[in-house]
Structure formats: C-alpha cells, structure tokens
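User: Here's a chain of 91 residues. Predict its fold as tokens.
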Amino acid sequence: VRAGQTEPLVDRVVAVALPIAMIVSRARLAARKPLLMLSGDRDDFSPRSGLEQIAKDAGGHARIELIEGADHFFGGYENDLTDRIVRALSD
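Assistant: Prediction complete.
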C-alpha cells in the first residue's frame, strides 16, 4: 500500500485483507491516491475498526468494501472478491 501511494505509475491502490495488526504506523498509510480496502466481515486480521481509521486518516481518498461471510482467506468468496477487484481497476 505504501509503495502504491508513492509510485508515480500507480494511479489507485486496491488492498485485499490488509493486516491491520501488523501495520506499525497506520498514519503512513494515509492515502494520496484512491485506496480501496477489501476485507471479509469475519477477518480478524483486517477488522473494520482498523480499516475505518485508515479511511479517516486518508481524508476522503479511501473506501472500504466488506464481503459478508468472508474471513481473511476468502474461502468460498473468491468470485465476489475477484469481481470487486476487477470493477475497482476498471473504473
């Protein structure tokens, strides 16, 4: 996510199952480019509250999409995840 925010060739970032607990400083993730955070609503590594804080820090450049029923590995929800990524990158 950090690399995508600084790389000039990247115009948007899609983060899948962002491991909030492993991020030392969420402030570093403040988005300057469009940032979509995709997560399952049952993902313990990427909880909604952490994603909401990153979105708040991003100042309107980030959005969150939760896939209902999915955990961190999206087992059984791969098609939904793929469809959302394709839409995000096609806009």
